[in-house]
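Researcher: Structure for this, please.
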Amino acid sequence: MRLRTYIIAGVALLVSAVCSAQIATPGSSPIGLGGEVKMRSMLHLPVSRLGTFDRDSALLAMEAADKESLRLYLFAHKQETDIDLIRSGHHSTLSDGRQVWQYRVTSPGALSLSFFFDRVSLPEGSLLFIYTDDGSKVLGGYGIQNISRSGTIATQPIETDDVVIEVQAPAGSSPSLRLREVNHGIRPLDLRATFGSNFGRASDALTCTPEVVCMPGLDEMKRAVVVVVINGEGVGSGTMVSNTEGGNTPYLLTAAHVLSVNFKHMNIEQQAERTVAIFNYESPSCSGEVMPDLTQSVSGATVVGFDKPTDACLIRLNNVPPESYRPYYMGWTAEKHPGGNYINLHHPYAMTKRVNYYNGDVKVNVTCETDQHYFDDHMHYEVPAWDVGTTAPGSSGSPLIDRAQRVMGGLSAGKSYCSVKSADYFFSLANVWEQKREATESIVRALSPSGSGTLTCDGRDPYGSPRSRAHRITHVSSALSGDSLSSQGAQLSSEVILGGADAVGEHYLLKPHTQLYGAYVMLDMSQVKPNELGSEDVSMTLEVYTGGESPAATIPVDLSKIIQGTLSSRQDNLKYREVFVSFPQPIDLSERGELILAIPTQSLPKGVSILHQQYSGAGGQMMIKSGNKWTPRTLTKGTIALWMDPLIGDPEEDQAERSYPLFSLTSTSPEQILLQLADRVSETAELGIYTISGQKVYTATLPSKSTILDRRMLEGLGVVVIHVTAGSEQLSIKALFPAN
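Model: Predicted structure, token format:
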């Protein structure tokens, strides 16, 4: 029988900024940042300085849109251009015959810039880059695989107001590229909930809707939900969905008003060309302390079906998401009224992925109440009020998911807030199936090629490979509990963590022959001083030990863009960053199943440290290496766990199955606590709450995976023990409920 104890001090939430790099050629880099024609200064390049506009009026219009019921987040002002970048750009020829064109674009005061190119022709081997002159932010290289069938490329936002656009082409080739639109970011894409002194923008409007990492059982679903950047101006949410014939067709379900930017741009094919889908944008920390490593997106799409009366929209991405994105295509249902217990995954305000829960029954065939009569009557589902969470601008198009983990529809509108319980409205696939318009029938034919009589489809992993099914485990309990590393005590200095050792590492004992596909390292860059970095090329080394004296793999990791991007960000002061290292080939842990993820101390740039958690007793698995010997690292008061997480295969591996606790507690409001059972729980679970002296306060059989507890019955009791039994597994959590 398993019995584990955790101490919960409290729960707080926040979010991270969008960083970017859609499908790009591995190992490519701009010539302007090094090499034969290294750019000495942006001032030497031909430049377009975009004209001024009434920024205040544009901002007021965006803020007014937030108050409407449609939940698209508007953030940028579009400026049209007509620049032939090959004819106007500065041209150079390299010694090997390759050609390079460079052109500068500046839009003073922009919080971000994104671009739309047409008349694009990039011969095989050509690359397009967009970057800042200090190299801290780089998009690309984009090649022939990024061009839509109509010869266009849309980019996602880059956080700057001044960039170089560079084209590289093989000798003798003739690329073409015209810049048609520049989107000037007026509002940030990184609104944050406040969490202590580490975090940036003050916004507590979404503290009731948890980060997805906080909640067990969401792995496949969260891999399907993406940020949708439309026309460079707005942000919504969407879901990758399967079809009844299987295959890898990248269908994305969102709302019609998202694709048309609240029905303001009805040339929907043009809108689809300007669509960028961003995958896996989620914090690794329940508290949101760590900015995620986000380098996964797909640009451009074509319209499959767009239906304004129902608000349903299905598009097909121009590229299949790579296996490294670990995409998942969710199942769907067109049945009229699936049973209760609903989930909504979404990206409010372009924040990291959040989750809502509703344990009642939705209302069917209701009329969506919007400020204008956008949709036909009796076409929507209504969630009267979320038990946990809220939607917000940016949530539009996000899925309503039933208890069978199938998508029923997507968010059209709503007035829900953390502070005010109100209804949200989702378009209904059931109603799409019942309509006989060309647009709805196009959606039905795409999702159910066998015929409209098929009303359900199961989700699927489009790759079904060990790498795409790999999962992440961690020794840092605060990652899932919601506790802040900072609130548990200041992070130890890099000298204390790294000093006196040749290398430091985190030790794991896993099932024999577990496959290792990559590793996540959480870095603390709060002590980095730019003038002490030493050079533009800043890197560290990741070593993988599987039981021998020598590493089984040694992998250099370029940190220059991450560090420079962190230090130069104008929009936040969050200095904890996640770095993901994907292994080209999986590493077998052999019969011993032993793993140490290690970093030689001399390879870390000055001031950079590894995030870690201190434990008062056993629990930490940090190791230090002196010579060829690894020994556990202990403190006078306990142990340490370095925040270095492996990405492993074999879903049956026990430690991975148990990496989530049996249940979790999340404070969702001053009156409510969400108790969430792990997805592995299939039998009845029993709840008991007791005072520290053993007096029974409350007992119940838990009716579902999600249960709302009334916090008021516990306030003033001091420390209580919350105990859950499910089959052979038990877990007790101590929680403090002081008197008000």
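Researcher: Any notable elements?
Model: The first strand starts at residue 2 and ends at 8. The chain has a mean pLDDT of 84.
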